[in-house]
Each structure stands twice: as structure tokens, then as C-alpha cells.
Amino acid sequence: MESPESWNALTASLAVSDLKNPHAAWTFIAIRGFVRDDPGDRDSFVRFVREEEARGEITGPTIAHRVAEALVGAGIVRPSGMRPDPWGRSSSRRRELIASWNAEDRA
Q1: Over the stretch 26-38, which tens digit does the pLDDT of each residue have?
Q2: Sequence-distant (≥ 6) Cβ neighbours of residue 99 within 8 angstroms
Q3: Nearest to 68 by CA among 48, 96, 92
Q4: Is residue 28 exposed (0-12), middle (13-18) or buried (19+ Cβ within 10 Å)?
Q5: CB-count exposure of residue 74 (10 Å: 0-12, 13-18, 19+)
């Protein structure tokens, strides 16, 4: 596993997302402006997630890091996604904020 201290905003956002629901994870990173959202980009993301999930946990980078690297390699990541977010602090706060919106709707 890579050190969470080295995470960028994209990797951290993927780490705090539920990659079992890739469309929700995509929405989270797209609305934050970390990725381009052109036709085909979402499908590529879902494919990357499925491929990495099929590989499972490995000794080395996390699934979130591997998916983030695949997005970088595909040219889908915007500069804002590369900003540092050590330990996913900013991404976790943003995720909690969004989750609270859903909780309010259910109440």
C-alpha cells in the first residue's frame, strides 16, 4: 500500500468512495472537478474500476491508487485532481458533507 501521506486529491477521493458503486464514485470526483467528463470518460472509469477489482488486493498500491493512475494514463485527470490531500483529510470532509445531505433527505 502506498503511504496515505502521499495521496493526491483524486486518489484520496477514490479511497473514501465506495468503488463498488463506480457511478457514485465518478460523480464525486467529477463534481469536484478532478476529472474531465467527456463522452466515454465515465465508461473508461468504470472499466478501470472493474479491472482493478478483478485483480483484487495486491502487495503494493491500493485499488484507489491504481484506478487514479489509470485515469492519469488515459489523460482524464485535471490538474485539480493532482493537488496533495495527505491522508484524504479534505476528501473525507467533503464526503461526509455530501453524505449529510442524503441523511437530511431521508429524515
Answers
A1: 999 999 999 999 9
A2: none
A3: 48
A4: buried
A5: middle
The helix-helix angle for 9-16 and 63-73 (nearest 10°) equals 130
Q: pTM above the 0.70 mark?
A: yes
CA 32 to chain centre: 10
Q: Own/partner pairs for 67-74, CB < 8 Å, 24+ apart?
A: 67/14, 67/19, 68/8, 68/10, 68/11, 68/14, 71/10, 71/35, 71/44, 71/45, 74/44, 74/48
43: its cell numbers: 465508461
Query: Which residues does residue 84 pair with via DSSP β-bridges, in sequence order?
Result: 8
3 state SS of 87: helix
